[in-house]
Amino acid sequence: xxxxxxxxxxxxxxxxxxxxxxxxxxxxxxxxxxxxxxxxxxxxxxxxxxxxxxxxxxxxxxxxxxxxxxxxxxxxxxxxxxxxxxxxxxxxxxxxxxxxxxxxxxxxxxxxxxxxxxxxxxxxxxxxxxxxxxxxxxxxxxxxxxxxxxxxxxxxxxxxxxxxxxxxxxxxxxxxxxxxxxxxxxxxxxxxxxxxxxxxxxxxxxxxxxxxxxxxx
Length: 217
Ligand code: DX5
Ligand code: ZN
Known about the structure:
The protein is α/β, with parallel strands linked by helices. The protein is built from eight helices and eight strands, in the order βαβαβαβαββαβαβαα.
């Protein structure tokens, strides 16, 4: 299973050290949460920050856009160095067009769904996706509790991608910690995003290693 630390819970006053720690501990992707204060009630960063972080690591940048009208901004995030660009199904009326455009731009095309959006809403676009992000909390903040219903959604998504697009990766984001990570893995996720479980505390590298170890038991 791939582990993707989310920099949302990192300390940006020492972001170089924070990134180096999770790279050293074997992170697979760096998850970058972009929030606009409209799609979600919080604001983070845009392409400038992502471009500034880009030289710090070769790890794939997994940009999670929690913004309205994502079609207006995807090119800027690709230019800044994102390798995967994921936008929300709920944030645009033309998701298939934007997925195709992302692939045309040469990045992996990801679609995210909020807790209230059923997996069945993806039936007609799953073949256009390289990644499906299932939100296991309401997006906007780190440190929230995992919504248990997400486990059933992961299983439904696993069946859908097996049927229609086996190359599509399933990523889960929100409330994942040492207790819920094994459940998410068992349900069939390929990638687990973790913010507070990695960066809240004094030892992000040790915490990420411990989370990885929780999968082995
Ligand atoms: C929340 C973000 C998440 C966030 C998860 O909207 O999409 O990536 O960092 O944080 P935790 O792991 O603390 O739930
Ligand atoms: Zn996220």
